Amino acid sequence: MSRNGKVLVAMSGGIDSTVTAMLLHESGYEVIGITMKTWDYATSGGSKKETGCCSLDSINDARAVAVDMGFHHFIIDIREEFGDWVINNFVEEYLAGRTPNPCIMCNTHIKWAALLRRADALDCEFMATGHYAQKRFEQERYIISKGKDSNKDQSYVLWGLDQHKLSRTLFPIGGFHKPEIRQMAAERGYDELAKKAESYEICFIPDNDYRSFLARRQPDAIEKLKGGDFVSTEGIVLGKHEGFPFYTIGQRKGLGIALGKPMFVTRIDAETNTVVLGEVEDLNQQSMWVGNINFVKYPDLYDGTVTITKIRSRHQGAPAFAQQIDNRIRVDFATTVDSITPGQSAVMYEGDDVLAGGHILSVIEPA
Questions:
Q1: Which residues belong to CATH 2.30.30.280 in the chain?
Q2: Which residues pair with 144 in a beta bridge?
Q3: Could you report the per-residue pLDDT of 6-54, keeping only the tens digit for each?
Q4: Is the separation of the CB atoms in 36 and 8 below 8 Å?
Q5: Which CATH number describes the domain made up of 6-194?
Q6: pTM for this entry
Q7: What are the pLDDT digits (tens) for 213-258?
Q8: Which residues are catalytic?
Q9: What contacts 147, CB < 8 A, 6 or more positions away?
Q10: pLDDT score at 53
Q11: 123 phi and psi angles, rounded to 5 deg
């Protein structure tokens, strides 16, 4: 019998989840590996070879480590539930003029729920993932904080986890830097794994061509939206676009229109099928509404909470005041930030700790 209990480890076949399983196995947990099949890329009509966490190679890599280290490994097929929620939401958000983050939706609504159900069925007290984040229990709350490696920190994509899910979750590599993880793999004889390239693609769009994906999923809807207007910030018609779902806030390349100077998408109006173009300074905004809130460090926010708020995963974060108003949060940045994008996530931090997170609903225009 293990001295630390049983833990279900989500194994993608990549280095981070593999080292997660290794560390737990070596520290005395009874590890059970599990790999989730979330998507079959061939069914999307794409042309690129299947890659990433759902590929046969990745599944085989995860299984090989489990066999080598002597613990059980299972494969579960969650394509139906993944598609019903994550992919449908992805398409619906673009068709509503917003830009979604499917990885966060998957974590919040699909992946953790699916893993915890299997953990319960296998009598596992905990589940573990290879995310670069840290967790602690303080003042009756489970708190997510940034991973030690600031270049790899993934706390931003975990804001949607509620207290129950956090209570059952371990993040064994959150206290390490990525080079240390690679060294651990190499020292244990997994040289090829240590050199394995990382994938930053959306798992169901491995060719990164989300436009073609949308066109294949909703051809009639996309066709009807073609020929809408590009307009200036003053409302002057500048040309025709290919359908507003094909654009996102801050986009400069791929507009298909030449105006003699760099122009950027500054706003998308789904109701009028218009895409607003402006100059780089027109991307600067200072206030926004955030909804679908999950409170992490505290059960709510007090008025005028001072935070560092991130508006996308690679955003460094900016000082802001956050005020809870009913079921929304108004965020007012100390200075302007660029490309606030409805549909993306806003995550509020207190130091390295996640205070709360939610979806950006809209920009608040200056009075």
A1: 218-278
A2: 135
A3: 999 999 889 999 999 999 999 999 999 999 988 775 555 444 444 455 5
A4: no
A5: 3.40.50.620
A6: 0.92
A7: 999 999 999 999 999 999 999 999 999 999 999 999 999 999 999 9
A8: 106, 203
A9: 131, 132, 133, 134, 153, 154, 155, 171, 173, 174, 175
A10: 52
A11: 60, 35
Neighbours of 14 (CB within 10 A): 20
Identify the three-state secondary structure at position 25: helix
Ranges for all domains in the chain classified under CATH 3.40.50.620: 6-194
- Which residues in the chain are classed under CATH 2.40.30.10? 283-363
In 3D space, the residue among 356, 332, 338 whose CA is nearest the CA of residue 346 turns out to be 356
Domain spanning 218-278: which CATH class is it, in words?
mainly beta
Among residues 274, 256, 257, 277, the alpha carbon closest in space to that of 266 is found at 277
Beta strands per DSSP E along 166-273: 169-170, 229-232, 237-240, 264-269
Please give the Cα distance from 246 to 215 (Å, whole number): 9
Please state, in angstroms and rounded to a whole number, the distance separating the CA atoms of residues 226 and 222. 7
> What's the CATH fold of domain 283-363?
Elongation Factor Tu (Ef-tu); domain 3 (2.40.30)
Going across the sheet that includes 6-10, the strands are 72-77, 30-37, 6-10, 126-128, 169-170
Which runs of E-coded beta strand occur in 38-163? Answer: 72-77, 126-128, 133-138, 141-146
